[in-house]
Design a protein that fits this description.
The protein is built from 1 helix and 36 strands. It is mainly β. It has 2 domains: about 80 residues, no CATH class; about 290 residues, 7 Propeller (Methylamine Dehydrogenase, Chain H). It has a 6-stranded mixed sheet with strand order 1-33-34-35-36-32, with no helix packed on it. The longest helix is centred in the first third of the chain and has 4 residues. About 35% of the residues are buried.
Amino acid sequence: MWKTTRIKLLAGCFTAFSLFTLSAFGLAVDEPIADSYQDVGLPIAQAYDPDDFNSHVQNWAVSQAQDGRILVGNGNGLLVWDGELWHRYSTPNQSRVRALVQWHDGRIYVGTINEIGYYAADEKGALVFTSLLDSLDIQSRRFGEVWSLASTDKHIVFSSSESILLYNGESLRKVAGITPGSNRIFNIDGRFILFPDASVPLEIPTADMQQVRDYPIQGLPIGAKVRDIIQAPDGQRLIITSKKRIFRWMATGANLIFATDTFGEDVDIHSAFRASDGYYYLGSLRHGLFILTPDFKLVRRYGLKDGIGLDTILDINEDSQGGIWLAGLPGVSRMTPTHLYSHYGTKEQNIGAADLQAWRDMPVLAGFSIYSLSKAKNSLDSPSFSALENWEHDTNFILDLGDA
């Protein structure tokens, strides 16, 4: 797997050392095979904390705007990353934004606590919030916190703790007969489907006189706690639940295709995303990021200790350059897919890296000792460089003489 290509590094003492795993080192970047992940290192990530964006530690949603900027639903409102600077746009009460969408009209629609509206640029380019509550009667305005939203070409639906509210491009109205709670809603073939934790899914009507009705999915357990629904490459859908189960949703119902305790007993999945190259990213509460191959092999777990900046991941998305964005606590992070590029850590703080080459299909590093790449005890952790035992000599070069 490792080509015998010698690479010279600058001699000297470094407090940390990173060897990037690139295709030049033989990693199969064009073949997403689970076995190749055993050599994948730590993420190359840029983490942003509250000091960077000057706002709340909670970050609930992340997406990319039509102009390329990154949008983040934050504990105080909306954050925008323009590639160089962060900009904060508060909601009227500086309350949190758990869900957002940029609709076909270019406006950024958000829901928060007893407030729904949109952001649009003024003549100077700054985003200004406009409330949509004027079209609601006074009693309907006490709908609590908006937890989720979904959209079609004709409507945006906001699911709050007390009500479902439907926007048609001109006005809001309350959908009668339902108290959704903190559950999630999705656009399924142009239909709005709510997934309550304690009952069958519900179809939310868009016409005035229609009633909310059951939308049962055979094979999906009641109480499955659906966290995300992802379009599969074969046109079918994948249902991601909080309890580490993935269902394939077909015309005949939902079939369980992935269930494992490898995540850990207390792991609660909160977010999921399928990247453009087929890999799956699952974010958890307090247990970091899990990565699955396109054929659902669990290959890696990354967290705060691995450089991604957060252990609680509330939303995941991908930008137009293939970067993976993570939103959660205590910040926001962008990472490069690690099967394309990654780096290795070292067990020693100062290794004096001087020479690197592949020796008998394994990378070997010269410095204050000789260091070899060691596999982690846990298959979900990354390998790292460690010093060879009984070798305490400063080493500048390594020469492979073969079997002679």
